[in-house]
Amino acid sequence: MPATPAWPPQSAPRLFIDAELAPGPLRVEGPQAHYLVSVMRMKPGEAVKLFDDRTGEWLGVVQSAGKRDLILEITERLREREPVPDLWLCAAPIKKGRIDWVAEKACELGVARLLPVFTRRAVVDKLNLDRLRSHMIEAAEQCGRTALPELAEPVKLPAMLRDWPADRALFFADETGGIPAAQAFAAHKGPAAILIGPEGGFDPEERDAIRACPQAVGIALGPRILRAETAAAAAVSLWMGTAGDW
User: Fold this and answer.
1) Where in the chain is the domain with CATH 2.40.240.20?
2) Which of 66, 70, 91, 148 is 20 to 30 A from 27, alpha carbon to alpha carbon?
3) Tens digit of each residue's pLDDT (9 = 90 or more) over 67-105
4) How far apart are the first and last CA of the chain?
5) CATH topology assigned to domain 14-79
6) 43: burial class by Cβ within 10 Å (0-12, 13-18, 19+)?
7) pTM above 0.90, yes or no
């Protein structure tokens, strides 16, 4: 006998819905409806996977499709919201395109919170948070994630250090040298954050201020010079591996 096709199919499109999902009808409008109707050519009876960053992933079945909207019937929850390791990524803004990449990878790698930090040598002094969030949502949709990183309001480095939580380790990538990152991560259990500077690095006064923070630990990311976005992805990956998330 032929095998029964998987339901819902692995190829079913996934969408983030910024509202708490529950069984029942759901109207989809705007760009998401255009994507499902005009790009994916969804027809009644076909499946869509939905997630809301609150309750997990749900199955939606197309009931009707118009030119500008469609109606889904949410029938069942497929997965609970995934657990997220308690890691923040604190990153100095870098050029457009590269900071978008950092936001994508922060989502893919499982960061709980992305905190943009303005530093003296940063070449970017404004951020489009809506654009960054859109990149994170797209990454989550494509990678099967059910959780999104919290995207915090940008903060200046002195204010971040002043208000730093007493129970959270602050690992900062110190280009002048520090404890090997894997060794530092393995020695600490509990809430943590990784601080990555801009293209030009931290200036001496900033570095002294970071080191004066009781929770700060300078780390080294190997013998090679890394671009800011590479350092962010490398440090997060190493922390996740050390913490047992991978």
Assistant:
1) 14-79
2) 148
3) 889 999 999 999 999 999 999 999 999 887 899 999 999
4) 38
5) Ribosomal Protein L25; Chain P (2.40.240)
6) exposed
7) yes
